[in-house]
Specification:
Strand order of the largest sheet: 2-1-3-4-5-6
Helix content: 25-40%
Structural class: alpha+beta
Mean pLDDT: 87
Largest sheet: 6 strands, antiparallel
Number of helices: 5
Number of domains: 1
């Protein structure tokens, strides 16, 4: 069981849209609004290895996605964590979707300008199960500064 200190009790009542992605199911499952406390229980009990095993034992044409948990706020920003790899050698990916302003180059890199990307998603591999939970906790706590630093 993963434990994190400093769970802000005022944020426990804040609910975000939760969903799961299962490899053999094309649709999201378990869509609901969850408080941080409810989410932590779901995360800790999610069958990561079992779903990965199902994925690895299935023909590629029947796989729709990697086993994942997703949380989204009302603005469409969110965190997703997926497990990938082999049963004895897997890792987690943390995906953080949010709008950002980034630099873009034009005309062979001679002109640089700011570009507002409404649906920017950073995808960070080589994470642990604990890293994934920390990303969700930061998101529930609206600690976007910490999310930007790490993901």
């Amino acid at each position: 069981m993963i434990k994190l200190a400093n769970i802000n009790s005022s944020m426990i009542n804040s609910k975000l849209k939760y969903s799961e992605s299962h490899p053999l199911n094309a649709e999201l499952v378990n869509e609901s609004l969850l408080s941080k406390e409810e989410f932590i229980k779901k995360y800790e009990n999610f069958p990561w290895e079992e779903l990965l095993k199902n994925q690895l034992n299935t023909e590629d044409k029947n796989i729709h996605c990697s086993p994942s948990i997703n949380v989204e706020n009302n603005d469409g920003n969110g965190i997703s964590v997926s497990i990938v790899g082999e049963l004895n050698d897997y890792e987690f990916y943390v995906c953080y979707k949010r709008p950002i302003t980034r630099k873009k180059k034009k005309w062979f890199g001679l002109i640089e300008y700011d570009y507002y990307d409404e649906n920017f998603c950073s995808i960070i591999p080589e994470q642990t199960k604990k890293d994934g939970l920390e990303a969700f906790i930061f998101f529930y706590d609206r600690n976007y500064e910490k999310l930007e630093e790490r993901w």
